Automatic annotation (TrEMBL):
SUPFAM superfamilies, alphabetized: ALDH-like
Record Pfam families: Aldedh
Alphabetic keyword roster: Oxidoreductase
Molecular functions per Gene Ontology: oxidoreductase activity, acting on the aldehyde or oxo group of donors, NAD or NADP as acceptor
Protein name per Swiss-Prot or TrEMBL: Aldehyde dehydrogenase domain-containing protein
PROSITE patterns (alphabetical): ALDEHYDE_DEHYDR_CYS, ALDEHYDE_DEHYDR_GLU
PANTHER family xref list: ALDEHYDE DEHYDROGENASE-RELATED
Length: 425
């Protein structure tokens, strides 16, 4: 884990960054075929960082063609496992060498606090790549029982061209989660980052060439979902899509598969995750500390965040008092200031969505700040379990407190939602 720098040092790195702006296809940066661009904005300041290539279906066709050519030529898919392993290890080392640059790039593009980018997201990105690199030569095929005149084997082969559609809340880490296993297995990948957070995916693609990953194996297409994600999901020569994002968009990718080549779809979608605390809980102070972390880390922009606290009525006040005490340490402000635990939300549109849930008379702490895109960690008491706040995924730093009388009522309330991603007891 790297040491944190000072606020001034991170600001200096930010001023010196040279941001990638074009799509990355067949080992080189390329403008979109239409020539169109879109602005990527630092949500903490509202300033335009760069104008990024706005790709469309023509760019998708081009990238898929190059990814398929690279796969069929076998420069990566048929490469000796030890050589694929070596390239992935080298990529992880290059990321480590550029860790402060990438951390700042991630922070200014997403609003995430630099303390998390530098000490959590980047180290875990590196670890993910290293783990899958080491797995390359340690996953064995199988031989099935058969008669003396037969040989039955199960052989693991790369699937082909894999689309990797990323969310904006963990741009680098989700990139690693998707490309690491796909590349380790010998596939070609086409990454579609969220339009709000394209920069670090482009920089990692650039580093992949330096690491020795052949041209056409690692491609990045920037742009809007309907312009890039949809044609990627519908493309007949894409063999698989891995998607992380909203439940609504996840459903679309299942439809894209059905309407095209029945490609394999892997989804991680939304959540409305309960944390149940009953009156037999020991070490209530420790419970309070964990609840604050689970609810507000990464500004609550986390699919597995605890967004509903379901607490037994006779311990609610004591628990909330302890939570408020822990929350005093959670400063909100400039993401490049390492003393801040929380930065800004990802963009103005999402900020407005989160704020729409704050029209409530039972806010204990938090609320909107005067600065755009900043929302303080907010706890709302006496929330109706059937209300919009308790049922919909807010994806922001808002915790709903729901009071129950018994264990059975707590379980019923926890299950009273369309989501089922995560839960804590």
């Amino acid at each position: 884990m790297p040491d944190l720098l000072t606020h001034e040092e991170y600001q200096a790195i930010g001023k010196s960054l040279d941001f990638p702006t074009n799509a990355f296809i067949n080992g080189q940066f390329q403008a979109s075929k239409s020539g169109n661009t879109f602005e990527t904005i630092n949500p903490a300041t509202g300033q335009v960082i760069a104008k990024i290539a706005a790709c469309n279906g023509d760019d998708v066709d081009h990238a898929v063609t190059k990814a398929r050519e690279a796969f069929d030529q076998g420069h990566w898919s048929k490469l000796h496992p030890s050589e694929r392993k070596e390239a992935l290890i080298k990529l992880s080392k290059l990321i480590k060498r550029n860790i402060q640059e990438l951390a700042v790039m991630e922070s200014v593009d997403s609003g995430k606090p630099i303390r998390d980018c530098a000490t959590i997201d980047l180290p875990e990105t590196i670890d993910c790549l290293l783990w899958h690199a080491e797995a390359v030569d340690k996953i064995y095929d199988q031989t099935a029982p058969a008669g003396e005149d037969a040989l039955a084997v199960i052989v693991r082969e790369p699937i082909g061209v894999v689309g990797c559609v990323l969310p904006w809340n963990f741009p680098l880490l989700m990139l690693a989660w998707k490309i690491a296993p796909a590349l380790a297995a010998g596939n070609s990948v086409i990454v579609k980052p969220a339009e709000q957070t394209s920069l670090t995916a482009l920089r990692i693609a650039e580093l992949s060439i330096e690491a020795g990953i052949p041209r056409g194996v690692f491609n990045v297409l920037t742009g809007m979902g309907p312009d890039v994600g949809q044609p990627l999901g519908l493309h007949p020569d894409v063999d698989m899509v891995s998607f992380t994002g909203s439940t609504e968009t996840g459903r679309r990718f299942l439809r894209y598969s059905a309407d095209s080549n029945l490609k394999k779809i892997v989804l991680e979608c939304g959540g409305k995750n309960p944390a149940i605390v009953l009156d037999d809980a020991e070490e209530l102070d420790l419970v309070a500390e964990h609840l604050i972390n689970a609810s507000f880390w990464n500004m609550g922009e986390n699919c597995s965040a605890n967004s509903r606290l379901i607490v037994q009525e006779n311990i609610k006040e004591a628990l909330l008092d302890k939570m408020l005490a822990h929350l005093r340490d959670w400063k909100t402000g400039d993401p490049l200031d390492p003393s801040n635990y929380l930065g800004s939300l990802v963009d103005v549109e999402h900020f407005k969505k989160v704020c729409s849930y704050l029209d409530n008379d039972n806010i204990i702490t938090g609320g909107v700040t005067e600065s755009p895109c900043y929302v303080l960690p907010t706890i709302v008491d006496k929330v109706d379990p059937n209300s919009k706040l308790a049922q919909e995924e807010v994806f922001g730093p808002i915790l709903s407190v729901i009071t129950v009388k018994s264990f059975d009522e707590a379980i019923a309330v926890a299950n009273n939602t369309d989501y089922g991603l995560a839960a804590s007891v």
